[in-house]
Amino acid sequence: MLRSAKLKPLALATSLILGLAACSESTSSSQGENFDGGTPVVDNGGSTTSFDETALLANLVDNVMTPTFVSFKEQAEKNSTTLAAYCDVEKSVAAGESEEQARLDALAVAQSSWRITTAIWQQAELMQVGPLATNEGELRNLIYSWPAKSTCGVDQDTAYFEDGVINLDESRPYDIKNRTATRRGLVSLEHLLFSTELDHSCSIANDALADWNSRTDGERRVARCEFALEVANDLVDNSKVLLEKWQGETGYALELKKAGEPGNSFDSAHAAVNVITNAMFYADKQLKDQKLALPLGYFSNSCGLEACAEDVESPVAANSLANMKANLAAFEKLFTGNGTAAENTTGFDDFLDFESGSDIKEAMLKGIQDSNAAIDAIDGNLQQALVNEKEKVEHTHAKVKDITDQFKHDFINKLALELPKTSAGDND
Questions:
Q1: Are 260 and 365 contained in the same domain?
Q2: Bond into 147 cis (ω within 30)
Q3: Count H helices, E strands: the chain?
Q4: What number of CA atoms fall less than 13 Å from residue 164's CA on the CB side?
Q5: Which end of the chain has fewer CB atoms at under 10 Å, N or C?
Q6: Which candidate, 122, 127, 144, places its Cα nearest to that of 13?
Q7: What domain range includes position 267?
């Protein structure tokens, strides 16, 4: 049953402690043509609402977005500690000092830590504003480069890190800070921690990998875990950079909260609100299209125009469904304003109620609820479902599309917001 009250954030599949294929009508609207009339508010960017958008910004920043970034940094640090312990066990087993079961147990703990870290980040994926959006998302990509990835590049850097130089060239010392995003971050860690194939994945072995496939399993596992620890430490550094750029007197969080004030980069609170809704369009372009429509074959993929398991987001760890659940949880938090403060839940649902858009609110809440139920109904992982129960994946896509259709059309129009440039004129 649909509840009119705010939905509590849904539990993630990973027990995270943070607490759609038909096309719809096209739209070229950039402002809400159906926006209710009213007295214009000074410096409100053309909006005619008297809803307190500054209060909305404050709650979303303080009680949803900031706690997510803080939690990610804290979990990244825990993840690094976990991987250090895992490496100690790998070395002990390789030296014949510990049993194989100890290695398997330590690996399982390291994999679980990666899943928890990834679950938090998948919420941050819908919060790509400020430091995560500047320079074409450079910082975001260093943390999570998907859909860009290179398992060969990760295998090469594993050998480079072990040697201390790049491709046996003594004039090129290895420094992960100088390496490309696809060799770093959570995508790299997925390959290092979950791939059971110890041979390198490069079609041609360069000098550093020339003898890799002939080395013992123990040696290769140790090399991989040591590079994984280096990647994890780099992840900690980047999580700290994110917080440094987000918090403080010159941080982007304060810029959002003080939108419309003299000297602020936003001429109105409404403009800052629009930056957050732009980020929420991740649910449309990435969740609906890239994570579901692409592997379903609705767009051309690696298999042509048919279901393609190899094009899922997280193929090695089979974590795709958990990622989508985390994306939906973040969308719901931003929509309802339900974050860390029970006494303040100012969200877009309240904005819609204020503007006589309660029907839109209810439709979107139902879409979130139905999308989660559709994911939960899938047996096994997404790769298996694309082969064995494609209709359930198609149903999930349809339910997510219900949310994004409302979001792109009625939501944007009712609140007099603008579509992101990448979505203006989008027919899907």
A1: yes
A2: yes
A3: 17, 2
A4: 2
A5: N
A6: 122
A7: 250-414
